[in-house]
Specification:
Elements (H helix, E strand, L loop, with lengths): L2 H24 E3 L4 E7 L15 E5 L2 E3 L5 E7 L3 E10 L5 E12 L3 H11 L6 H17 L4 H6 L1 H19 L1 E13 L3 H65 L1 H144 L1 H11 L1 H9 L14 H41 L17
Antiparallel strand pairs: 1-4, 2-3, 2-5, 6-7, 7-8
Length: about 500
Amino acid sequence: MPEGLLLVAISVVAGILVFVILLRMLWKVAEPNEALIISGLGTGSTPKSRPDSMGFKIITGKGTLVLPGFQVARRLSLDTNGANLQVSCVTQQGLPVTVRAVVIYKVGDDFVSIANAARRFLDRQDGMNSTIHELFSGHLRSICGGLTIEDLIHNRDALTGAVRQSSADEMSKLGLVIDSLQIQEIDDESGYILNLGKPHAAAVAASARIAEAERDQEATEAEQQAAAKKAASVRESEIQQAGYQAEMDQARAKSSQSGPLAEASARQEVVVQETRAAELEANLSEQRLLSEISKPADAKAYETRTVADAERDARIARAQAEAKETELKAAADATRVKTAAQAEAEATKARGSAEADATRATGEAEAAAARAKGMAEADAARAKGLAEAEGIRARAAALAENQEAVVAQQLAENWPEIVDAGAKAFSNIDNLVVLNGADGMSELFGKALSLGGTGLGLAKTLMQSMQNETATETATQNGTVHTIPVERDEQPSKN
């Protein structure tokens, strides 16, 4: 190879090496757990790497050329970080508690989250934990203040979810995402949580003691049953051993007495056979008696009993038929009597109703007649009274005008009664003796007839006396007294 060509080749290779080394020094590659934040000349020219108006470029998972002096490349860790929280809170019940938790977080993988995290933590990535602690401490205090200790203990998932939800907006603004949030422990200084668990612990302890006692009782019972079964087994074994020993002794005794027993057995067999023969003969005699005597007698008795039963059944049937017939007749008679009585009662009732109606009609008619008669009599009496009153009024008027004419008229009208009253003096005389004959009779009749004139004179005297009394009373009232002359009629002599 010529010397000039060799020098050219070496220069080209050296240039390539220098270019590669220089490119290696200027080429920055982002690791999988980090993001390159490129700022400086030309970093805002790529829209995909600049999601907002900030002028820097984000590179993740690849490399980029960084021009020294014109551009600056810094790395933002995308690793997971953990922050321990210990927050003192006051619950809804006013009880102070200490909540211990751990937050696992990281920078989000999208450009927006990386950009937000780069703006806030690029130069102080170690301060993320303090920021997270302050952020979650505030949210924990706020949420725990609205819950009770029971809610904090029994609903830790709800508490975790509430904290994650309330802090999601702030975490998004910081460009961070929460991988995990765990409430590790809740402590209270007043012992409230410990006291809450005491009843359950006491109940669990009591249940444990009860279970232990029950298991101990069951174990004791099992031991006693095992001991009883063991004793029963021992007893059965000893009984079986005694039985076996008895059988052995019996066999041994039998073996020792086999000779006498064989002889006795032979005699017993003979006696048994003789007894059997006697029983057969007795049975034969019995069967013969049964066939010759007892069976005919039983047949005769059966016939007699059957006939007697048939006659008795016939009598019972006749008696039942007669009783039934009598019962039917009595029922028919009772029905007939009842029907007749009901008919008689209906007839009596109808007659009574008719008589009552007739009596009522008669009474009403008589009452009407009596009422009409009474009214007629009352009218007649009233008319008579009116006529008499009219007559009295007329007579009084006449008396006032001409008393003598009125008295004379009254005497004339009642003259027969007056003469009759005067003649009654002679009605009680049985024998009348007239001494002077026709003159005596004339005188006697003249006396009787003179009664009317005497009455007339008496009436006149009375009328005058009444007039005088009226005048006297009038004078007395006026202060004057008059003598009233009295005219007396001569009384006829008794002779």
